[in-house]
């Protein structure tokens, strides 16, 4: 095909469009409040003539004398009116069976009701879900509100403590595309390489967008690469910014964990800890939003700001019945088990300015966010690993603490993160009914590491703060869309054409020399906790791609909708690709719709995956050692037999239905199957048992090496269910929302390179059983949510239940009486690789709110009111301490978290 499809799509895009002169009748279709209704259908009765309203609800049409117009819009009662000689305003009232929220993601035509779309879309109104909860960041809020949205809060995982990467349907964070106002959002420069589920992936930091700026979130739970390009294999998250004017809204809140079971809790001074529960993880948030009208034609500019501060948490031995007398050693002083602290602030604006006496609108949005964080790295024990301590460190209270006769040391990893985004564009109407949109969207993320209260053991104890370097990612996207609604074709046709060009740049910059150098061969290399990036890691890589696409939606009949999309892209480093999508929806009855889709997907390996290079400290079974992650093109990668990276390819299919038996109830059920070939993941860890690697590892002074590779083919399949009941009567309201996701992932094939085939040890190094277990645990197999809310007068009370199903991983622990899977170092009496099971858990939240006045509302309550925690390690049916979780503590990252009960209060002001 070699680019022929790209040329065909480009030819269609520039195809000349003819218009014919007509006598025009002008008017506007509006709601009872006077707001224009977008994409309302206006037809002349008894003819094929018709049009649709623009973004302001305006229309123009040529009609016969004394003609009758039929005016309709989804969710509104249809009206028939006689034309007049002057402009006319047509008011539509809501249908008795209003079909719910309108969505714009997944279509380039008119907005449709969320239950009339051919694929599932969740619509989450932020103002409704962010106040009655102790959760204060966007990612956590969405995790509780959407059935197949998943994220795991990380701890002791280097930069993963500060970036909460989210996924859809158990896939990778970089397989979900994030849009803001329909425009592509840049990803973070961060690569998840340690202690995380999405290891080997980048993603988008949703928490870098001020929560106060968001009106609603649309989550498209279906493959959309053919519509939006790379990264949309699992789906699309579209954040719609606020357009409010003349109202100042301020939301503020406080929350803190109260966990009586936490029997080891550190005080402010090193070496001091106290028994029993205490409030920690104190969080404070403040958000504000205000908009100003611009001009005389519905223009506006809306400003938002957020400030957020969250303290550390410390979680150690929660099970008081477990102790060393059981033969299960427990490190009761590990400070790395807990959340790091974070302080962040951000600003955002959203603007539209119609050009007077034209159909053209200038728009722009963007903002910035800064984040500073502080998290403990893995705790070191001087008596166990003296080479980790410099000479003369004894007695230095800044660097160590002594508890129960043991000397411990806790390095701190600090990060400073900057996010910047800016979008500007012009949109309008060409001729009578061609909608066009030209835009440029820019985004940049910079991630800088520092080591604090630490040292380079080979240098000495005099220096305790290091600049470790970091990385940045830049993305710029130019996009042009052209669309037209043709109501005279069947029951309506919408055509869209588009061109897109995207440029990306990724950089790694080195830290100061002392952060990575070795000055004494008998001591550990580099700053403890996080050795700095080295000059050999530095990279400045760029790439670009161009794309053309065609998108069509046809209402073949009043009941049958058909959608088709074709997209062709050409990468300057990975060549040409084309993707396709077919989606359909059929109304079996007026309130029951069957829907389904099938699509192909494509994702080129990110610049981060191609170029990332770093040396980090790993901990397994109490052993501390350095690991080198080498870029795909490096000599060490080739020596290990790892082939060049290639693109991921996918096939996504879904089938389901939407049903609205009465106006108060909406039910949607959707099944899905996603096949992905050549998924890019982080390999296992290779050591000197591969002869070709031994001299290189020795030269680098590291014990192991890891690489990015197209290691696996996977299949995800599952089911999403949403049941929504909302009833309002007198001054009361009842809302019941049930969400459910069943998800299963199969590893269909491990793509072992020829150079490594034939040896079990080599195969395990390439993608071990342990790594396979982690990718299977990317999402719980069952996630169920039930929200019950009741309002009466000025009061609202509610309870929210979330159930997360059982997951199993392979981790390092101490052998007890149970047969281990793998014994390490041929010593069955020390650490072993065993299966750890985290059983399913139900978390219960409660809240209440009271409207003090028309302008002030107070919220209060508790998340996880019953103080439920993950299992403290269950190994083959018996309770056992996970001596080293992947995050360096007693638990691995599970969706419910391990911090326990969280109390909160919030205030909402509107002026």
From TrEMBL:
SUPFAM superfamilies: Carboxypeptidase regulatory domain-like, Porins
Keyword annotations of the record: Cell outer membrane, Membrane, Receptor, Signal, TonB box, Transmembrane, Transmembrane beta strand, Transport
UniProt cross-references to InterPro entries, sorted A to Z: Beta-barrel_TonB (IPR000531), Beta-barrel_TonB_sf (IPR036942), CarboxyPept-like_regulatory (IPR008969), Plug_dom (IPR012910), Plug_dom_sf (IPR037066), TonB-dep_rcpt-like (IPR039426)
Pfam families xrefs: CarbopepD_reg_2, Plug, TonB_dep_Rec_b-barrel
Position of the signal peptide: 1-21
Subcellular location: Cell outer membrane
Source organism of this protein record: Pedobacter roseus
Domain TonB-dependent receptor-like beta-barrel, first and last residues per copy: 391-865
Subcellular location, principal: membrane
The name this protein goes by in its record: TonB-dependent receptor
Similarity-based family: Belongs to the TonB-dependent receptor family.
């Amino acid at each position: 095909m070699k680019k022929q499809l790209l040329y065909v799509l480009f030819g269609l895009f520039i195809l000349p469009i003819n218009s014919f002169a007509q006598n025009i009748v002008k008017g506007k279709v509006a709601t009872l409040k006077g707001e224009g209704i977008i994409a309302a259908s206006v037809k002349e009765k008894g003819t094929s003539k018709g049009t649709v309203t623009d973004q302001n609800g305006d229309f123009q049409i040529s009609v016969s004398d004394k003609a009758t117009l039929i005016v309709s819009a989804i969710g509104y009662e249809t009206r028939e009116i006689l034309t007049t000689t002057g402009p006319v305003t047509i008011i539509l009232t809501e249908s008795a069976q209003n079909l719910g929220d309108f969505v714009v993601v997944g279509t380039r035509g008119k907005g449709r009701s969320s239950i009339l779309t051919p694929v599932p879309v969740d619509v989450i109104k932020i103002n409704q879900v962010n106040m009655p909860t102790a959760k204060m960041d966007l990612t956590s809020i969405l995790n509780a509100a959407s059935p197949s949205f998943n994220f795991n809060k990380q701890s002791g995982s280097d930069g993963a403590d500060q970036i909460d990467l989210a996924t859809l349907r158990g896939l990778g964070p970089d397989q979900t595309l994030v849009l803001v106002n329909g425009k592509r959002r840049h990803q973070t420069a961060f690569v998840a390489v340690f202690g995380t589920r999405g290891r080997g992936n980048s993603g988008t930091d949703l928490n870098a967008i001020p929560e106060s700026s968001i009106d609603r979130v649309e989550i498209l739970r279906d493959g959309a690469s053919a519509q939006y390009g790379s990264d949309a294999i699992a789906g699309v998250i579209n954040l719609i910014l606020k357009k409010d004017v003349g109202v100042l809204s301020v939301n503020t809140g406080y929350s803190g964990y109260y966990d009586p079971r936490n029997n080891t809790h550190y005080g402010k001074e090193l070496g001091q800890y106290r028994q029993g529960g205490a409030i920690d993880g104190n969080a404070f948030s403040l958000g504000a939003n205000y908009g100003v009208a611009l001009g005389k034609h519905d223009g506006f500019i809306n400003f938002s700001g957020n400030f957020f501060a969250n303290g550390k948490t410390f979680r150690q031995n929660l099970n008081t019945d477990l102790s060393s007398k059981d033969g299960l050693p427990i490190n009761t002083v590990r400070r790395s088990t807990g959340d790091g602290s974070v302080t962040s602030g951000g600003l955002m604006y959203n603007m539209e300015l119609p050009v007077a006496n034209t159909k053209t609108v200038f728009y722009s949005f963007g903002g910035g966010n800064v984040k500073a964080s502080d998290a403990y790295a893995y705790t070191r024990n001087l008596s166990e690993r003296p080479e980790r301590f410099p000479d003369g460190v004894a007695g230095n209270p800044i660097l160590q603490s002594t508890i129960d006769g043991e000397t411990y040391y806790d390095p701190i990893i600090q990060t400073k993160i900057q996010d910047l985004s800016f979008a500007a564009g012009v949109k309008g109407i060409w001729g009578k009914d061609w909608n066009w949109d030209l835009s440029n969207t820019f985004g940049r993320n910079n991630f800088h590491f520092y080591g604090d209260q630490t040292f380079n053991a080979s240098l000495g104890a005099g220096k305790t703060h290091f600049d470790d370097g970091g990385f940045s990612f830049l993305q710029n996207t130019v996009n042009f869309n052209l669309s037209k609604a043709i109501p005279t074709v069947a029951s309506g046709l919408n055509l869209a054409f588009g061109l897109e060009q995207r440029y990306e740049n990724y950089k790694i910059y080195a830290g100061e020399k002392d952060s990575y150098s070795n000055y004494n061969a008998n001591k550990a290399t580099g700053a403890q906790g996080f050795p700095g990036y080295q000059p050999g890691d530095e990279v400045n890589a760029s790439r670009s791609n161009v794309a053309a696409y065609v998108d069509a939606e046809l209402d073949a009949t009043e009941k049958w909708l058909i959608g088709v999309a074709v997209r062709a892209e050409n990468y300057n480093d990975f060549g040409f690709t084309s993707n396709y999508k077919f989606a359909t929806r059929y109304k079996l009855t007026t309130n029951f719709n069957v829907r389904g889709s099938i699509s192909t997907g494509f994702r080129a390996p990110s610049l981060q995956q191609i170029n990332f290079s770093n040396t980090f400290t790993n901990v397994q079974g109490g052993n501390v050692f350095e690991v080198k992650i080498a870029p795909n093109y490096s000599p060490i990668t080739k020596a290990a037999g790892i082939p060049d990276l290639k693109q991921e390819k996918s096939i996504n299919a879904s089938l389901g239905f939407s049903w609205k038996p009465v106006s108060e109830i909406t039910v949607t059920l959707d099944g899905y199957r996603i096949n992905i070939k050549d998924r890019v993941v982080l390999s296992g860890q290779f050591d000197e048992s591969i002869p070709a690697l031994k001299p290189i590892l020795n030269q680098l002074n590291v014990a192991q090496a890891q690489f990015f590779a197209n290691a696996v083919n996977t299949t995800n399949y599952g089911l999403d269910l949403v049941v929504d009941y909302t009833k309002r009567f007198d001054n009361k309201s009842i809302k019941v929302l049930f969400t459910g996701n069943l998800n299963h992932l199969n590893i269909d094939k491990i793509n072992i390179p020829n150079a490594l085939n034939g040896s079990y040890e080599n195969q395990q190094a390439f993608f071990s059983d342990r790594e396979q277990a982690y990718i299977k645990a990317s999402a719980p197999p069952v996630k169920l949510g039930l929200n019950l809310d009741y309002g009466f007068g000025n009061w609202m009370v509610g309870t929210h239940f979330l159930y997360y199903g059982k997951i199993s991983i392979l981790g390092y622990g101490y052998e007890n009486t149970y047969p281990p899977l793998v014994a390490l170092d041929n010593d069955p009496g020390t650490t072993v690789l065993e299966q750890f099971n985290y059983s399913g858990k139900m978390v219960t939240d409660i809240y209440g709110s009271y409207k003090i006045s028309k302008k002030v509302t107070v919220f209060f309550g508790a998340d996880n009111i019953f103080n439920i925690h993950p299992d403290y390690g269950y190994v083959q049916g018996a309770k056992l301490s996970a001596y080293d979780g992947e995050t360096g503590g007693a638990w691995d990252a599970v969706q419910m978290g391990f911090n326990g009960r969280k109390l909160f209060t919030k205030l909402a002001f509107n002026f």
